[in-house]
Write a structure and sequence with these properties.
- There is one protein chain.
- The chain has 510 residues and is mainly alpha-helical.
- It folds into 3 domains: 4-74 and 93-247, Alpha Horseshoe (Serine Threonine Protein Phosphatase 5, Tetratricopeptide repeat); 269-394, no CATH class; 400-469, no CATH class.
- The protein contains 18 helices and 6 strands.
- A two-stranded antiparallel sheet has the order 1-3. It has a two-stranded antiparallel sheet with strand order 2-6.
- The chain starts with a helix and ends in a 10-residue tail after the last helix.
Length: 510
């Protein structure tokens, strides 16, 4: 937390780097001659100030090794080929660096958000910005602060709540998990009252926080607090925003369909930006991390075959989620046969290896099954045009309407409305998947866990939703035969954070 003391000044510097449109807000400008006196004299200065909060997401390790790892490796549907195999036993070491990255980057974003409120108030009072723009900027800051706290609490449980710029040494104790999610709900309610429903008529601002995104996170935070009836009411409000499910599940994550009507909040990345190691993180490396070594020389993340076989017959979500030996890639934009290594080593086959010779890496230690949602359109928009490029400009969806509907169904069930919950699952989620209604004699708690898994595996939320449901330990035991050690269903507070703040207490079991 000591870090926060200097973030205010850092934010001012970062804000001057970022242009106005959201998709392009990562292009940098020379600010060596900028003085404090020249800041925040124009409306665009306030916009750049808020852009600096979004910029916090632009760290590939934060997005992949912190958030994606936590959301997926703990569910056991995906595994790590490299050194990070401890997720399989839930013995995550406290000095695991991505834990510290998650902590530091989240509090960077929180501190940047906290710096916005007094500056925007002064800009409004001085007549630099209009009331409408001030409301929008404050709404975005509240939304983003709430988002960072949402993921912190989902990963670590209770964390210190910092709701204004830290002026002391920042050695503050942890709030409880319920207190953090209560603050998330409060921030999201404030944001929802200040933000527009969408930016369909202002495409330069696509990707910015909206009322619908704020309501989605508010409802989810209420579910963490077990306020299920409140969550239903919050989720109901989203219907007024004009959002809708994609008819074809595959299209949700297609490169050509970014910022679609189902997406409520997605982190924007740039196409054709710097692709080198040590780049400024305007691009993302999900693609290479989760593709087979036979194509990219990486392939660190791979799927468990049990995910592949868990889908019901004819479930249209299966192939857009995970593919295995002998499968073709479901996206029309991706031809496996086009990759240089596939041409050179495998005769240009257009399948993910073959059933006789699956692609398990050079040492045969991977499963031969790989994520599809993170393996998206890798041929395009690299700065070199190389289809094996490591980094690309595909956005990452953090929250979408499909997740909201499954969460709403759980909230309905837990608030005593099982018939309505079943109707929602059957007529929206399962109908899009091409499936018949769930069996009437099947326990709804089992239905909801399966729908979370098959709707959201490989995205940014599955384990957090399973833990929120309270069924996560039974799920891991029943599906994978693993008994989670006491206290290890939640990630440890990073060792470095505790060394920096003696007031922090470690999670039980670590």
């Amino acid at each position: 937390m000591k870090l926060n003391k200097s973030i205010y000044i850092l934010t001012l510097g970062v804000a001057t780097l970022l242009p106005l449109s959201c998709k392009d807000f990562l292009d940098e400008a020379d600010t060596r001659n900028i003085s404090e006196a020249s800041l925040f004299k124009k409306p665009e200065d306030g916009v750049r100030l808020v852009n600096a909060i979004y910029d916090t997401f632009h760290d590939s390790d934060f997005m992949n090794k912190s958030l994606w790892y936590g959301a997926n490796f703990l569910s056991q549907d995906f595994h790590n080929y490299g050194a990070d195999v401890f997720f399989e036993t839930y013995e995550v070491p406290t000095n695991f660096d991505p834990l510290n990255i998650a902590w530091v980057k989240s509090y960077e974003g929180i501190a940047r958000a906290n710096s916005v409120f007094p500056i925007v108030a002064k800009m409004k009072a001085d007549g630099v910005i209009t009331e409408d723009l001030a409301n929008r900027l404050n709404g975005e800051a509240y939304f983003l602060r709430g988002t960072f706290y949402y993921y912190l609490a989902s990963m670590f449980g209770g964390v210190p709540l910092e709701l204004q710029t830290v002026t002391d040494e920042g050695r503050h104790p942890r709030n409880t998990q319920d207190e953090v999610f209560a603050q998330v709900a409060k921030d999201m309610e404030t944001a929802a009252n200040l933000l527009p429903w969408n930016y369909k008529n202002d495409r330069s601002n696509l990707g910015r926080a909206t009322k619908g995104a704020a309501l989605a996170y508010k409802g989810s935070a209420e579910m963490w607090q077990k306020k299920y009836a409140d969550a239903v009411k919050t989720f109901d409000m989203i219907d007024a925003g004009g959002y809708k499910l994609e008819e074809n599940f595959l299209n949700i994550h297609e490169y050509a369909n970014q910022n679609n009507d189902e997406s409520l909040f997605e982190v924007q990345f740039l196409e054709g930006a710097d692709q080198s190691w040590g780049h400024a993180d305007e691009t993302i490396w999900f693609t290479s991390f989760h593709m087979p070594e036979e194509i990219t020389n990486f392939g660190y993340g791979y799927a468990d075959p049990k995910l592949y076989t868990s889908f019901e017959q004819d479930d249209k979500r299966k192939m857009p989620t995970v593919i295995g030996p002998g499968d073709t890639h479901p996206s029309p934009a991706i031809q496996i046969s086009a990759y240089p290594k596939v041409k050179e080593l495998f005769g240009g086959i257009n399948t993910l290896g073959t059933k006789e010779k699956p692609w398990k890496g050079s040492d045969g230690l991977r499963s031969g099954y790989y994520s599809v949602k993170t393996w998206r359109d890798p041929n395009v928009r690299g700065s070199t045009g190389n289809p094996q490029t490591i980094f690309n400009g595909q956005n990452v969806i953090m929250m979408r309407l499909g997740e909201v509907y499954v969460s709403k169904a759980e909230a309905l069930w837990r608030s005593g409305q099982e018939a309505a919950a079943r109707e929602l699952i059957n007529n929206t989620i399962r109908k899009r998947a091409g499936l018949a209604p769930a069996p009437a004699n099947k326990a709804f708690k089992d239905i909801i866990i399966e729908e979370y898994r098959h709707e959201l595996s490989g995205e940014m939320s599955l384990w957090f939703l399973l833990r929120r449901s309270g069924e996560h330990k039974n799920y891991v035991r029943d599906e994978f035969g693993i008994t989670i050690p006491s206290g290890k269903d939640i990630l440890p507070i990073p060792q470095q954070a505790i060394l920096s703040n003696s007031e922090l207490k470690q999670n039980s079991g670590y």
